[in-house]
Amino acid sequence: MSVEAINPVPDHLDLADAERRIKAIFIGSVGNLVEWYDFYAYTAFALYFAPAFFPNSDPVVQQLNAAVLFAATFLMRPLGGWLFGTIADSYGRRISLTLSVVCMCFGSLMIAVTPTYASIGLAAPAILALARVIEGLSLGGEYGASATYLSEVADAHHRGFYSSFQYVTLIGGQLTAIIVLLLLQKVFLTPEELKAWGWRIPFVIGAGLAIFAAVMRRKLQETDAFVDAVKSGKPRGSITGLLKYPRELLLVVGLTAGGTAAFYTFTTYMQTFVHLSVGLTEDQTTLVIFGSLIFATLLQPTYGALSDRIGRKPLLMFFGAAGTLATIPILSALKETKSPVIAFLLICAAWLFVAGYTSINAIVKAELFPTNVRALGVGLPYAITVSVFGGTAPAIALYFKSLGHEDWFYYYLSGIIFLSLIIYTTMRDTKHESAMHRHE
User: Fold this and answer.
1) CB atoms within 10 A of CB 248
2) Pick from 55, 178, 230, 323: CA 20 to 30 A from residue 123's CA?
């Protein structure tokens, strides 16, 4: 028997490598969860704090003002995608991820301590807007850096599965915000206390969690791909270098448009939709959204693992085709029902196809670009597209509702998904034609 057959060192080395990857993915994902919790706390508690910043007797107008401010923060995301993407490609994924979560901490803390409109007048929504701008800057950088980090840390045969945890933690951030909301609603505060001052608590929690995440991220190991790119001596993290890949940039825009519009419709806007349009109570709304997000979370690694077997393109095409055909019927049926159970089932039905995009969109974008411009290539065009199609989705939906034509939004969303479907049918399958190994 050979020495190699007796010596189990290679297995130990493989086990150690797997543990290293899992630990890095866990830390990176926890930071991502904290960032998205801070961001989604705004949406989860908008029904309570909107009157404090936007006084008006019409609840639809209050929510429209809050949604417009939500959309306005997305204007900063392209700047965040450029800034933190450049840092990630030039100086390392770890420092970019750490700085982005520190930035989120400041934004969350500002919201927690901002006085109401009754106290300081127009300065209140102005400060709120500034805080959301800071959070938008942070989140704009988080996506590209975390997508790049998770894709580079994962092994070649399980990139879809491991990268899907970006959206597991992204949705997990919203779930955490809802859990905090439920605890405050049901255990610790009365509705009056929650509307008066209790809505500040989740933002204090978010700031504290962001500090914890920043400390954890400082201990992250840099990816081997970035280290190899540094050794290659090629320029990194420049717009000039990124512009050498115009087709890939346009692909990111095209494949993101429909997916991000659908994602923000069935997450951010759904809470407002089922409350104001379907007519569910606040408690029913919270439980329906919470349950549907748990279902969505479970789908992410399932679809991600499936993409490692059959490729990325089939899942994207499934999302595009099903989303184009099913969006209008689902939203129409959802508006007509008065049953929380039916509402839950309809939203889950939507997630069956939306997950075809969310679970793998990060790895698809990462696989399009070489290491030296990967974070910038993933983050910047994505942030621009999300600003145009994702962040505006709740505001567009509420605007159509204020006009008395809410169903116009159903057709708008279906049309955007169809445009992305055209892109999916023409693009290459990045699982089989990946740029992950390239450092030029």
Assistant:
1) 21
2) 178
